[in-house]
Amino acid sequence: MIRLEKFDAAFYPQLIDSIKDARELMQFAGPEFTFPLTEEQIAKSLSDSNRIAFRVVTISDGSTIGHCEICFKDEFANLGRILIMDQTIRGKGIGKQIVTLLLEFILENSKHRNVELNVFDFNIGAIKCYEKIGFVINPDKKFVREMDDETWTALNMKLDLDNWIRKD
After folding, report:
1. φ/ψ bin of 133: left (φ > 0), alpha (ψ from -120 to 50), beta (otherwise)
2. Is residue 108's pLDDT more than 90?
3. How far is 117 from 82, CA to CA, in rounded Å?
4. pLDDT reported for residue 143
5. In what order do the strands lie in the sheet containing 136-147?
6. d(CA 148, CA 65)
7. 72 in the Ramachandran plot: left (φ > 0), alpha (ψ -120 to 50) or beta?
């Protein structure tokens, strides 16, 4: 079990250390940051008053195991920068717990009911996780990113919170 807590400057080094190379950074944050990730880049991003960042904490011992953010836009809330830091605990349902907690936060703290996220098309595990929660691929919206002479396609997924039924 996990909980979300405010992410602040004290945790910047842990996030920085969890991003090992430029490819991981692109997958985590898209093109906004450049590798190596720095405290200055994080601080600048989080200076946006529409962005809220959380650290993902285990309830059992309070250790940080991940990171996630919500960015409130005019028409929708965008989930992003979802990261489970320890690769050995990925694929065990933690991502679903993170996204569910983010959706509950939006329900309780915002009038936004349209939620979106972007995920690279090769990240099949994440796509399946988001689909289990209720997100659907928006065929009209995708993004292309260049990475190491490759073209990566980011799919946009959306969910209407008014019709969302929490599935445990």
Report:
1. alpha
2. yes
3. 10
4. 94
5. 2-6, 51-58, 64-72, 77-84, 114-120, 150-160, 136-147
6. 28
7. beta
Instruction: Give the residue carrying structure tokens 């960042």.
Output: 53
Give the separation between CA 122 and CA 90, rounded to whole angstroms.
16
pLDDT at residue 150 in the model: 96
Output the CA angle 159-77-51, nearest 5 degrees: 150
pLDDT tens digits for range 42-51: 999 999 999 9
Amino acid found at 77? A
pTM: 0.96
Q: Which residues lie below 8 Å from residue 103, measured CB to CB, with a gap of 6+? A: 115, 133, 159, 161, 164, 166
Closest by CA to 141, choosing from 162, 168, 114, is 114
pLDDT given at position 12 = 98
* Amino acid at the residue 29: A
Helices 124-133 and 94-109: crossing angle in degrees, nearest 10, is 50
Q: Which residue type sits at 32?
A: E
**Tens of pLDDT along 50-98?**
999 999 999 999 999 999 999 999 999 999 999 999 989 999 999 999 9
Residues in contact with 73: Cβ distance below 8 Å, sequence separation at least 6, in sequence order: 50
